[in-house]
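Inputs:
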Amino acid sequence: MKRIALVLTALVAAMTASAQIQFGEKGGYMTIGLESNNILYVNDAKLGTTYPSKFGSNDYLKLDYVNGRFSVGVQGEAYLPALQGYNDLRNNGFDKPKVMLASKYIQWQDTNYSVLVGDVYDQFGNGLIFRSFEDRQLGINSSIEGARVTAMFGNYVAVKALFGRPRLYSSSNNYSAGWIGSQYARSTVGGADISLSLSDMFGSEELMLSIEGSYINRRERTDRKIKDLYIDLVDPSGEVSSTMYILQDIYGLKTPHLNMYSARMNLDYKGFSLRGEYAGKSNDVIVGSVYSDVHLMQGLPDVTKAGSAALIELGYNVGNFSISAQMRRLEMMGTQLSVYGNIGVMGNTLNYLPALTRQQTYMLASLNPYQMNAEGELALQADVYYTLRSKQSRQRYWNFHANFSTAYTLKEYQTASKKRELLWREIDVDVERQWNKQWKSTLMFARQEWNTSHGQGAYIPSTTYASNIFVGDVMYKINKKFSLRMEAQYLLSNDYEGDWVAGLVEFNIAPHWSVFFSDMYNLEATEANGFNKKNYYNGGLSFTHSRTRVQVSYGRNRAGFVCSGGVCRYQPAYTGVNLMLTTSF
Amino acid sequence: MNKLLCLAVALVASLTVSAQQLPDVKVENEAGKMISTSSLVGKPMIISYWSLACKPCIQELNAMNDALEEWREEADFEIVAVSVDDVRLKARAKAKATSMGWDFVCLFDANQAMKRAMNVSLTPQSFVVDAEGNIVFSHSGYTPGSEQLLFEKLLETIKK
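Outputs:
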């Protein structure tokens, strides 16, 4: 704690000095951003929830100083302790109050080059082989502590290279003894990315064409001992027949180097776009996959495999009409920051493979989100948008949107039927109508189908569940200050938890106040909900002034997946008071 | 410990810094080309962060788009809509922006470099930036009608 305070003080002192020196014509400036999420957990007999700690608080303080081309910054984080559901953190010692210096950087950015030393956030192409990013909602921070250099040559060649060690919260299950509580993986990651704009090279104005390539290397010693790593061997009846412990031998990995590469092409011409990427990776540990379980049951401990991915994206935008489609094939592409890190832990991911589905915002449409299957998946999604705007008034329009997404297994061993099976299918249509300055309405229908086995092996029952979701959303702007918004939703299903109904009322006083109440009720008692119909209510108030926003709410929250950008974190059910503060200055 | 914290606070308080400026970051434009945010400076602007999953963000952009004709009669300025949707949703964000007929400069900040540089925690967040690139006002959240506050702050900037 003292060390952190000292580091912060030293940095602030350095910033002050720089600010007073006035490097550039305008001098420097500093920005401070604070985000604080706090929950006071309340016992709830209906949910049957108990809490190891009654209070949780995730807090982030970010300070940046910029002076012309020079910038420096730090991010401090406090977990007092970490909120329930942030298991990467809670299993790594953050179930007790802790404060830490989470990231720092110093950067020089010139017109054609930049140098950054500190924690690097970056992405190569579509992220198929590399993405380091922060998502506070998910509790992910996979920044690379090291350095990055970028350079531009002749306006048509862009190059970047980076090297460092990844941030990773290791937890007690799998990691080597003595490494619990660390913030960093013991691997190193290095890579480079090059982009060549052919259209800029040949001076084309209408056609934009570029080719790109990336390379990533992860290096990690293969001779470390692993603590308590085991694999349950399951017999055909679904019972655990024995447990296999694997120590020291890192599953037959022959080299400390993992190599990944990708090649890309981007083309844009008069509203039409075509993008493609192919990625490959060398042999990597695949423990936790269905393939490795099948392999280990045959007594073969050598479980490494190479992976590949392909992505194609098509788009056409003209006037008020747009269409976009993406297709993706994944095979053994799940890649860990550290082979010793926990399997399936969200933060232990070197690349970015989000689910190709629509990210739903309505309560009932986001009850059962699809989760990507990195072991083997064929996925497709398509969107169509069209807006019909009144020629007399900008305040009157129709907006039509349709989305289709689907995913299938890739390999026969992923399913009991030994055939390709549907993992997910969703079709939804929404129509938005701005009637005049006061009234706006939205109607949405979504049909979602998902496979209960999730392609997780032959021993998991495979059934397709289906839900039909109906949503009505109306907003009435009473005057320039007051407005009211209401949602009514119904989920119709013969499967899983049966039917649901939900509603929301929101009253706003511009520009400061908003009050809301929502309720979500499971109408049927089924095996999936423990024959217990539950009511999930939530009410709250928010106040905004300039850059400061405070929200207080109280409610009962369903267990489920919290998703952000196609990546999901499991959030256990809880009832409690939530206080959220964000500010920056 | 407390002394150190007091010292840190005192140092922050004693900072002699000038107005916050629009940071110079590389970000993708509608045509799929990487541009520097410094190339936007020259006209006053409202910068508004949004994502497909952020309903109030889209409400705010639609409200500004509806009012744009009236506003432009009073001031020469730009609206810059910055999508923070990740790479999976970027194509869809472009499709949405085009189909809605937003008369804005649309930027796509898929790995959130611009968002991080402007210290944005949550969306919606909007900034008013003057013709010299100084950030003169910022507002978090959206309630129907609060877009008017952004325009008033923009007009104040122009009149100064």
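Remarks. Chain B touches chain A through 67 residues (CB under 8 Å). The mean pLDDT of chain B is 85.
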